[in-house]
């Protein structure tokens, strides 16, 4: 018999908070996703409409409730203003993958690094995951620096890992964080 999934927690370091998505987040997601930098590296609909934000928030909440993936809004710990999104896909066996985006006005302040660290700490404390993966478009150097600051190591480049909007192959930098015995 499968045990029911426990409610998704709220995680904070006092500066940022990772919390479950709420329907009233749709407007802020819509506004953040007007940023061409997000659309450059994340395969979101273009143009991005308010309905897309509402779908994203509802889908993230539903998938988190079903498990095992967990999707969080990254918000300012004091104001609850949306700063971005972070997800843990899986665990799938001994592995899980992390993905995130940060709103333009929140970049360059350590938000993504803090969010990744909170999610890593929670994952390691509550699962048997041995391997956490994070990948970025090789052109997204800022995201690669986040991975390194959060304790991940560059594992390598996967050529033609994905396709861009025009169908051209793009390479991905893969980062890994391992929990090894001993």
Protein model, in words:
There is one protein chain. This protein is α+β, with helices and mostly antiparallel strands. It has a single domain (11-178), classed as Aminopeptidase (3-Layer(aba) Sandwich). It contains five helices and eight strands. It has helices at residues 26-32, 36-41, 50-66, 111-126, 141-149; strands spanning 11-12, 16-19, 70-76, 82-92, 95-102, 131-137, 153-163, 169-178. An eight-stranded mixed beta sheet has the order 1-2-3-4-5-6-8-7, with helices on both faces. The longest helix has 17 residues, at 50-66. The chain is globular, with a radius of gyration of 16 Å. The termini are far apart.
Task: Give the tally of β-strands.
Answer: 8
Secondary-structure element sequence? EEHHHEEEHEHEE
Specify the CATH class: Alpha Beta
**In the CATH scheme, what's the topology name?**
Aminopeptidase
Contiguous helical run count: 5
pLDDT < 50 runs, ≥5 residues = none
Beta fraction? 25-35%
The strand order across the widest sheet is 1-2-3-4-5-6-8-7
Question: What class do helices, strands and sheet pairing give?
Answer: alpha+beta
Indicate the overall shape.
Answer: globular
Radius of gyration: 16 Å
> Kindly state the mean pLDDT as a whole number?
94
CATH superfamily: Gcn5-related N-acetyltransferase (GNAT)
Helix and strand layout, with pairings?
Blueprint: E1 11-12, E2 16-19, H1 26-32, H2 36-41, H3 50-66, E3 70-76, E4 82-92, E5 95-102, H4 111-126, E6 131-137, H5 141-149, E7 153-163, E8 169-178
Parallel strand pairs: 5-6
Antiparallel strand pairs: 1-2, 2-3, 3-4, 4-5, 6-8, 7-8
